[in-house]
Structures are given as C-alpha cells and as structure tokens.
Amino acid sequence: MTRSSFIRPRAIALAVAAALAAGSLAGCSGKSSSDPNTLTVMSSFTTGDATGNEFNKLAKEFTAQTGIKINVEEVNYADLPKVYEAAKLANKEKDLVIENLTPDTTDWLPQGQVVDVKQYLDDWGLTDKLDPQAIEYWTQGDSGLAGFPYTGFNWPVWYNMDLLKKAGITQIPANTDELIADAGKLRAAGIQPMALGGAEWPVQNFVTWMVQQYVAPDQAKKLFSSGGYCANPGAVKGLDLMGRLRDAGVFIDNVQGYTADQMTTAYFTGKAAIMPSGSWGYTQVPDAVAATTKLAGFPVTAGGAYSKPTAFEGYSDGFFLSPNGAKKLASVEKFMKFMYSQQNLQSWVTDGSQIMDVKPEALGDAKSTKPLVVQGNALTKDVVDYLLLPDNYIPAGFDYSPVASEFLGHKGETGAQFCKALDKLYTDKK
Amino acid sequence: MTQVLVQTPLDAPAPAMRRAKKPRDKALIALALPSLVWYVVFTIGPLCAMFVVAFMKWPGLAAPTSFNGLDNIRNLMTDDRLYTALKNTAIQLVVSLPIIMIGAFMLGYFLNLKLPGHRILRVIMFVPGLVSLPAIGMLFVAVLGPTGLVNSMLGEVGLDSLNTAWLADPRTALAALIAVGVWSGIGFTSILFAARLSAIDQEIYDAAETDGANHWQRMWRIAYPIVEDYFGVLTMLQYLWTLFGSAGLILLLTRGGPGESTSTLAWLVYRFGFREPNVGYSQAVGLVLFVLGVAGLLAIRRAFRARF
Amino acid sequence: MTAISTRAATARTRRRRRGRVRRVTPGIIVSYVLAILYALALVLPLYWLLISAFKSRIETVSRPFTPTFSSGIGHFRDVWSLLDLGTALLNSLYITAVALALTLVIAVPAAYALARAGGRVATAVERLYALGFLIPGFAALVPTLLLAIKLDMFNTREFMILYLPGSAQPLAVILLTQFMRTVPPALEETAMMDGAGRLRILLRVYLPLIVPGIATVAILNFISYWNDYLYTLVIVGVDPGLRTVQVALPTLLGNQSITDYGLLCAGTVISVLPVFLVYAVLNRRMENALVQGAIKG
C-alpha cells in the first residue's frame, strides 16, 4: 500500500509555510485608516490610462509637498460602487472616492453614504474656481452637493472625412435627411455608415439624444427621472427618428450587438465612417484616423427642438467625500486645494488631455496639443447646441441598453412600441 | 467559483463498497465536528440569512434597512420579469441538460476506450474549468460579436446572409448562451463519466462484444444501466449548476438583453441585488431559486427511480 | 466485492500485457472526428488568450483570431509592473494555499468519520452537507459580507481563508467519503489490533490510500479559490497590498474608455499559469483514482 502513493506531511507543511510567508510579504500595507495624515482614495482613474497616470503622479507630488500620505486603491469604473458600498456597510469606507455621478452613484448622497460638500467648497474658496454648471450638475436638490466636480467631457459625433469623400460626400450632413441620404451613399461605396455601441451604455445615451431632438430640457428632465415616454408626443417622435435611421441603414450592420469597444474599434480602423462618442477617446485614436476626423454635432432635425447640431457635454469624475474622510478635514482641505491649484489643473489639460470642470480663468492658458482635443474644445455653444445630460436624472440602477438593443435589432418597430418598453423600466421599479 | 464546486461529482467508485460493515464506531462522528462547524458558520449561516433578508426592504448595500413583511414576495408574484425569467430558465434547462448529460456520457465512454490520444483529450476537456470566467466572457464577445469568429466563418463559406449579432439578436441570444454553457459543460462532465466508467469490469464489455453488440449497444445497454445512479447524481449537479450558475456569464455577455430575452432567475438575483439595487427583492428571487432547486432534485430522483 | 475488483484489475493488467486489439468501426471514426472538433473548440480560449497577449489594442478587437505578434512581449512586462502582479500573485497564492490546506485538514477527518461511523447521525450529517449545493451563487454574497463585518474581518485576506473552506466542505467531504469507503475495513482492523488509535489509522492507513481523492479535491478547489472574483473583490477589497490577481486584472477595464485587451490578455495568461502548473502536477494522481482503488481492494 505504500508503493505508489505517499502523503508527504513535511512537504505540505513546507508549502503552507511558504504560502504564509508569501502572504506576509505581500500584505505589508499596514495602513491605519484613522490616521489623519493619511488619505485613502478609491479611484476609478486607473493605471494604464491617461487619468490614472496623471492622478498617481499628482498624489506623489502632494505627499512630497505636505507629508500627507495618499493611498490610492484603484478599481474599475463598473465595480467601484459595489466595493465602496460594501466598505461603507462595514464603516470602513475610504476617505475619498473618484467616480462619476451616474445612476450607480446618485443614491449615495441622499442615503448618507457620502457627505454634502457644499460648505467645504465655499469655505475652501473653491466655489469661485468651478464652472457653475458643473456645480449645478453635482447638486442633488435638498441633499446638497454630492462631491467635488473635477473632470468633464464632451460627446460629439465623429466623421471620417476620407471615407465620406470616397462615397462622394464633401461635407458633414447638415440635417437628418442628408444623414440618411449620405448613409445610402456610403453603403453604395461599401462603407459602413455609423458605428454605435448598441449593446451597451452608448445606446442609452443615444436614445436620450434622439428623444431630445423633439423634447426641451425641462420636459426631458421629467422623462429621464420618472418615465412617461409614451405620453410625450415629442419623445415618441424622437424614438421614431431612431427607428427611421435604423430602417434606412444608417447604423453599422448588426449594430444591436456592438459593445462600446467594438464601436470605437470599428471607427478607429476605418470600418465605419461616423460615430457618436466622447472626449475620452480623443487621445486613443490612431494618428491617421485622427488626422481625417472632424468633430461636429448630430445633424439638425427639421421641426425639432434645436436649431444647431446637437452634442452632449458633461461632468464625469469628481471627488466624493465619505463620512470617514469628513473626520480628516484638515488633510482633505489641503488635498482638494492642491488638486484645484492652477498648476495642477493645467497639468491635467496638457499631460492628461482632460477637460476640467473649472472656469477658464482658473485654468489659465493651458492647452492640449492633441488635434482632437483641440477640435473638441472648439465645439462651443456657437457651433453646437448642448443637450441635457441624462446621467443624474435617470434613477439609480437603470439600464436602457437591453431594451434599446432590442429596438435597434427589430426593423420596423416604431417609437410608439419602443416607448412602452422604456416606460416599463419605470413602472417595474417599485 | 460555483461552477466547479457544484458541477463536481461524486467521483465515486462503485456504491457496492458501502457494504463494508466493520468496524463501526458512532463516537467517530466527532471527527466531523470541525468541518461541520465551519460549514454551518460559513455556508448554512448565509443561507439562513437569505430567508431573513428576503423579507426586508433594503435599497442598496449600505442603505438603511427595515422589515417589510411579505411585500417582496407579493411584488415578485405580480412581476412579469419573474415569469419571463422563469420561462428562459426553463428553456435553458430543458435544452441544455439533456444535451450535456447525454453528450458527456457518450464522450466519457469514448474517452474510456483509451484510444490513442485519449490522454491529451482528457487534459483538454478540463480547459473551460481552468480559465477564469471573465476570460471566457472576453473570448465569447470576440467569437459571437458582430465582427466575430462565427460571422467571419459564415462569410468565408458564403453564408453572409446568416450573419447576425448572436448575443444581441432576440432570436439567437438565449441559444448562444445555452451553447456556451453546453460548450463548457460537456467536457468537464465527460471526465467524470470516464472515471466512473473505467471502474466497470472490462470482461463485461468483452462478453457483449463476443455476442456481437456494437459500441452503441454496449454504451446504452450495458454501461448505462450500470452507472445509472451516477448518471442521476451528475444530472442533479448539472441541474443545480445550470439553475444557479448562469448569472456570471450573462453579466459578461448580454446583461439579460436584448430586451429580457436572456434574463434568467440567477441573473435576476444579481440584477436586483447589485444593479438596481434592491437587496431584499434579490433574496426573494433567491428563495424562488432555492425552492426550484429542491423541487428539481426531488424530480430527478424520481426520474431515476430513487436508487441514490 | 473485493474479489470482483481484484479480478477486474488482473484482467486489466493481463490485457495491458498482451496489448489491445480493437476493430476500427465507422462509428469510432465519426466519434473520433467529433471529439477532436470539440477539443479544438475547447482549446480556442487558450489560443485566443495567447495570441491576443501579443497584439496591439486595436488588433485585438478588429482581428481577434489572427496571430499578428505585433507588440512582442511588451504587454507582459507592462502589465506586470502596472498592476504590481508580483504582489497580487503572492496574495492569491496565500489565500489559495492556506485555504486549501485548511479545507483538507477539516474535510479529511470528517470524511473518515462519515465513511466509518454509520448510523442515523451520519446519514443526517450527509444530508446537511447536501444542503450546501442548494445555495444560489450570488445570493449568498450579501450575507457573507455581513458575516465578514460581524467578525470584524472585512478587508482581510484571512476572512477568505476561513470562508472558502467552509463553502467547499459539502463537495470535499462527500467526495472524500466515497474514496474512504473504498478502503477495505480489514486493513483498519489489523491496525487496530496492533493498538493504533483512530487518528493514527487515519494518517497511516487511510491517507496513503486516498491520495487520488485528495488530488481531486485539491485541484477542484485550487481552481475555484484561485479564480474567485466577486467575493474577493467585495470582501478583501482593492487595496494594492491585499488584492489578488483576479481582482487586479479588471482594473484594466477603462473608465468609460477603451480597454486594452492585449494588456488584459497578457495579465490573464500570467494568472492562468499557476493553475496549469498545479493541474499538470495533480492531474495524473487524480486520474488513476479508480484503478488504484481497485488494485488495493
């Protein structure tokens, strides 16, 4: 019985001892979360991305200047809310959180998971530096200000002029009828017209884009926050427009299956000529495609609510302050003042190619040299009409993309049918 | 994680061994105590908590909570999302269980013939279990996406007209998910069958071969009846895994869409718990799953005439 | 029963000696082709992971199945330093190895007890373990999180080390019990007559005979511990000093941005290697399980 098989207790003990040693080697973070001279930041600015590199660089500089240690804990944007909320449940939440104010995080302030920072913004003299609209966006009614607004974005439509030219189109379509006609020409030239991430978050944004072609901002707020698409004739018309684009072949084939990554890749590789997408892609695009890309709004809709081409601009990451962080106000104050200092804001623009949520005078004359960032900055209100960004009106946890993906894949379905699926999201939530 | 745990087998030699009688010692059960305590604290504890949380209003992990009696259950009973998910789950089970079980049994029989190359095949059969779920998810986005492997292969053979967004077409999405489940399920289960089949005395096969029985007949008339109990146990485990384990892949591939065409019960547990978030409501769906789990096990036991 | 197994074993040895003679039927050929096609489909993820790890970001999405090797080994170097994978691997190893050792240390005596105790209590205990299969995966996360908080072990790796063996007990115990039952009682009686105690018998008589069972339990649990994501993410958290490799990798999914799948795949390849290594070491011991059991009988 001892012939073939031995248990070697000594070998196993050795392996376990090695594993324990491995554990103690690795787990030497040894941070005490209550130390007022240490700030722990849970960050969706992640390594390997321009934002993560920039933030880590500044965090190190801050420590060098003040002696206050910054621990950065990175976690991807989608998983961050779960991780933060679990830690909050344990009362071990990190001091500051870098994340967008979206349906995943809009319930934090009302539920007391983060603190109102309005007072601090005023006391620390930051209110004057910030773009008032950014403050308005981050303000949640009576609950207060959800966090310190920091970076922003714009979200226009990208046109690959070389591909348009190949199809005999010399200028960007001025209205939706031209867009439909141009899509036909592109298809005739064997080029896919518009890429869209029909299976993921880009399509949720696109639905609100189309709806707002016929719906003014005050009504749009109501629609996004409490539904009622079918009862709003403008909204139904907007959804019909989306259906018309789909039936006319404006979207890339099988658009309903495209992920956000597949959308950008289709555009970046010249497979599709048009794409609605945001400023976060400006520095990722291959140079050849960047050189021929023109940024503009979505073509004007006849009889619609806006007279200029439309786009979004908005406010993405900000700093949420947790109840634990509020116990270390002195350090937080230093850190936030550091982050909003002109020099560091400029560094975000020049090195990180970001759009900052501050007034032009707070920023000074810093400019990015990346061609698309420059083009994006030129999209002022004289050229495009900016739509209402739906992100903090759509209630927590909502996701339009499954029903929108179905709509995109269902030729012939009308806005009057699609609006029911959207309204159902609101009535299902009890 | 649950994939491997639940999917795994009672990889046991013939149950006949149980007849061993001596030496018996009832006090010996004390040796099971550490394991039992551990298991009760870390596994049964959370299971019990599920029965409590299902009767609470709990809007988000760190939000204030309160008991709301039968509200969750009542709302759930009138929620048509539950019925859509029930239907999808039923389709998933009815289609994938027989394919996986029969396919794995036949493959296991084949592996057990120990033809040249069977060793390398056995190693390969384990691959879906070795690679983490997110990696499998990324792969199938690449395989089934609009410009993915399936569409380009169809294009190569001139069947462009069949191209579709497999994971986003209401006609194919659920089928695609089921196919992924079958893809990973057959290989693993076949290894378990091969292990059990190798315990069958070769002379029984030899005798059948002499009588002129071909492989098909030997497989179903000889091997199957011998391992029927084992087949039943693996069916139970596969049932539970399919019932409980689909959420991870759905999260990575379709998030229940398009529309609600790939929304299963397990997905609802995740969706209500972490996306909406409504923890109590999510646990109420967990209760439904628990009941279905027990009911399914009893049904399978009956179907295999309760010999295990 | 002992007789039957012995006969089977002898028959097997005899056949091995005289070599196998088999008729190749059309059925066998068709099965062969099907099995190989299926095996190719299973190897696909490995192929895709490997070639993607050597590609540029755009190529991973635009030409997912063409090997281009356009980025060399740069991704491996980058991902290693970007995510501090060395630390992450050590954390994964720590949790996995200690949890695995603990799993076996408590499951082996329990299995021995169940296999040899008999009686109503043992049956009830076995039923209780079966209940463990009835927990829907994600549903137990929140209660488990609450438990971690109650034990004041939130954000520690040690909670996972305690939790994982608990969740693995049903399978480990039931599986090992089956293996224990293959050990002939006669061996135990002999040892008892020599005056050996229960523990000594377990260690000296049983353990050497159930190595295949232990290998099976070890490999299954190694894989599931190593690959765990959601529980580890939520409970251990994302502190770079504590996070496991499975928690570190998804930080590469960009913030509404564009994910570099080349980098992610390189990281995934690194994270898969230890699993393959362990599988390679334990596979043979696992596979011979039943044959050995029969010979011993």
From TrEMBL, chain A:
InterPro entries per UniProt: Bact_solute-bd_prot1 (IPR050490), SBP (IPR006059)
Signal sequence interval, chain numbering: 1-26
One Pfam entry name: SBP_bac_1
Keyword Signal: yes
PANTHER family, sorted: ABC TRANSPORTER SUBSTRATE-BINDING PROTEIN (PTHR43649:SF30), ARABINOSE-BINDING PROTEIN-RELATED (PTHR43649)
Keywords: Signal
Protein's recorded name: ABC transporter substrate-binding protein
Tree of life domain: Bacteria
Organism: Rugosimonospora acidiphila
From TrEMBL, chain B:
Superkingdom of the organism of origin: Bacteria
UniProt membrane topology term: Multi-pass membrane protein
Pfam families in the cross-refs: BPD_transp_1
PROSITE patterns, sorted: ABC_TM1
Transmembrane segments: 27-56, 90-111, 123-144, 173-195, 230-253, 280-300
Record InterPro entries: MetI-like, MetI-like_sf, UgpAE/MalFG_permease
Alphabetized UniProt keyword annotations: Cell membrane, Membrane, Transmembrane, Transmembrane helix, Transport
Keyword Nucleotide-binding set for record: no
ABC transmembrane type-1 domain location: 86-300
CDD domains: TM_PBP2
SUPFAM superfamilies: MetI-like
Chief place of localization: membrane
Compartment(s) of residence: Cell membrane
Family membership noted in the UniProt record: Belongs to the binding-protein-dependent transport system permease family.
Protein name as it appears in the record: Sugar ABC transporter permease
Natural source organism: Rugosimonospora acidiphila
TrEMBL record, chain C:
Cellular location(s): Cell membrane
One family name in Pfam for this protein: BPD_transp_1
InterPro entries, A to Z: MetI-like, MetI-like_sf
CDD domains: TM_PBP2
Transmembrane segments: 24-50, 93-115, 127-149, 161-180, 201-223, 261-282
Record-annotated ABC transmembrane type-1 domain positions: 89-282
Gene3D superfamilies with a match to the protein in the record: MetI-like (1.10.3720.10)
This protein's name: Carbohydrate ABC transporter permease
Protein source organism: Rugosimonospora acidiphila
